[in-house]
């Protein structure tokens, strides 16, 4: 039937189909090998002032908030650049435009994978997710550096800083019996400043898990974190998808401060083998000179023998 079209319309149709096909193929090789269930992937190579467009069949546009958000010229992960998010800035997709990013329900599954370099020391840095604390519209979100972690066996929080956290909620508001949501996994390893790492969370309907550089960063009673209730359905008035901040206490906050070079969201939970393969297929830039120096073992000079 397409052959009967007027030559002009035929040309336009071919151009459109070519563009759609090119967009669908426009994924890094490391992502094409792990494309099953992939909702969106961003590489953050765009210039400041431009929306960050995802790769894949359904483009998602992250708009700058409190921008323009400059790109780092110190090298990226999936290209020469990355986005340098300063505290107080973030990216957002409005609720009506979430489509498959609106992951919810009793059978919901999700993976959030982010390639980031931490710069700021502040607590409660939101990396990415659908999470509105102010209006009780929490669904899922990957966080960095909560001051506490929740022990699953006690449902109490204890000091646990500089980790990554996979937050999940089936109720949207605070955990029953609590003012806030405390259902989240927490990693065993502290995340240093000035280094690129692959940080990830998964939820498979049974547990929230967090991964560091592709490996399940297990910590007894903290990671994995049992949670079988599913994810909240925020409805038409639910939370937007945000990168670098969430709405809490009536205003925007929980700001991420650092560099983000890649972000992938899946509507399924990657297993341990898949997460490791994905992380290992993406070379990370070396740490900054300052970070590398901080890793050097400290040598205490020996005292000279007494004369």
Automatic annotation (TrEMBL):
Protein name: LamG-like jellyroll fold domain-containing protein
N-terminal signal peptide: 1-24
Low complexity: bias regions: 289-298
Pfam families, alphabetized: Laminin_G_3
Annotated region described as Disordered, given as residue ranges: 284-307
Domain LamG-like jellyroll fold: 108-273
Keywords: Disulfide bond, Signal
């Amino acid at each position: 039937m397409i052959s009967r079209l007027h030559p002009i319309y035929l040309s336009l149709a071919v151009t459109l189909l070519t563009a759609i096909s090119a967009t669908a193929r426009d994924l890094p090789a490391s992502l094409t090998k792990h494309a099953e269930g992939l909702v969106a992937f961003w590489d953050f190579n765009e210039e400041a002032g431009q929306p960050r467009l995802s790769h894949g069949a359904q483009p998602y546009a992250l708009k700058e908030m409190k921008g323009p958000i400059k790109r780092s010229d110190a090298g990226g992960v999936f290209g020469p650049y990355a986005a340098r998010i300063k505290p107080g800035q973030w990216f957002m997709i409005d609720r009506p435009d979430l489509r498959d990013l609106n992951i919810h329900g009793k059978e919901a599954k999700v993976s959030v994978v982010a390639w980031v370099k931490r710069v700021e020391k502040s607590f409660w840095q939101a990396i990415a997710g659908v999470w509105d604390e102010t209006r009780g519209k929490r669904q899922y979100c990957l966080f960095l550096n909560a001051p506490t972690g929740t022990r699953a066996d006690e449902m109490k929080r204890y000091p646990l800083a500089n980790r990554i956290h996979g937050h999940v909620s089936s109720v949207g508001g605070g955990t029953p019996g609590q003012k806030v949501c405390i259902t989240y996994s927490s990693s065993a390893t502290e995340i240093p400043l000035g280094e690129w790492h692959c940080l990830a969370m998964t939820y498979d309907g049974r547990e929230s898990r967090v991964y560091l550089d592709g490996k399940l960063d297990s910590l007894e009673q903290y990671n994995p974190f049992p949670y079988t209730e599913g994810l909240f359905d925020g409805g038409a008035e639910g939370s937007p998808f945000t990168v670098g901040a969430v709405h809490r206490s009536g205003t925007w906050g929980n700001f991420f401060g650092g560099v983000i070079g890649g972000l992938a969201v899946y509507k399924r939970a990657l297993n341990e083998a898949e997460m490791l393969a994905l992380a290992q297929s993406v070379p990370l830039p070396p740490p900054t000179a300052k970070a590398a120096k901080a890793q050097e073992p400290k040598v205490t000079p020996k005292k000279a023998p007494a004369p």
